[in-house]
Amino acid sequence: MVGAQLRDTAQELAAVLWREHTVYRERSGGMVIRGEHVRRWISLAPAGGRDEILVRAGRILDGGTTAPARSEAVVPLSAGTGVLAATCRRLLADAAADAARPAPDRETAGRSGGSRKSRKPRKSARRNGRGRHTGFGSWVILVCVAGVIALFAYSSAMHG
Q1: What is the reported pLDDT for 116?
Q2: Quick count: other Cβ atoms within 10 Å of Cβ 144?
Q3: Does residue 10 sit within a domain?
Q4: For position 106, what pLDDT does the model report?
């Protein structure tokens, strides 16, 4: 019963949101609406409550693959297509804002995005030789500063 209602809701929602769209069923039983021309997707899936659906939105990447959802909301299925469309537009706007942000540098990219399967295990900083310890150059600078202070103190004591 929920599957048929979810499919009908997805069809209605797709027609309200985009002229060009593709609607299909996910393996998990949810429905996906793809808008290739706007490079966005929406997923509708049953949520924890009987009359609730989980709505997620994300981007379609180059090559047609989908980026993981960055935003989601739970909406009552009985709320109607208008409320559901408004929620989807808000989530799509969040996904568009996410796409507009500059790409993170290499150091933060491994922690914030991408799929977990594609990540390589990171070596600890100590094994790389770049741990949080005082390096040789820092010790040289500290010794030089200490030497200048000692020389200043020595000369002040001799001439004072």
Answers
A1: 44
A2: 10
A3: yes
A4: 45
Q: Containing domain of residue 45, as a range?
A: 2-102
Q: What is the mean pLDDT of each run of 10 residues along the chain (160 residues)?
A: 79 87 86 86 84 87 78 85 89 76 52 47 50 76 92 86
How far apart CA 118 and CA 58 sit, in angstroms, is: 19
Q: Measured between alpha carbons, how far is residue 77 from residues 55, 96, 127, 129 in Å?
A: 10, 25, 53, 55
pTM: 0.57
User: Residue 121 domain-assigned?
Assistant: no
Write b or e for each residue in 98-131: b if 16 or more Cβ atoms lie within 10 A of its Cβ, otherwise e: eeeeeeeeeeeeeeeeeeeeeeeeeeeeeeeeee
Contact call for residues 84 and 75 (beta carbons, < 8 A)? yes
Among residues 49, 10, 51, 14, the alpha carbon closest in space to that of 29 is found at 10
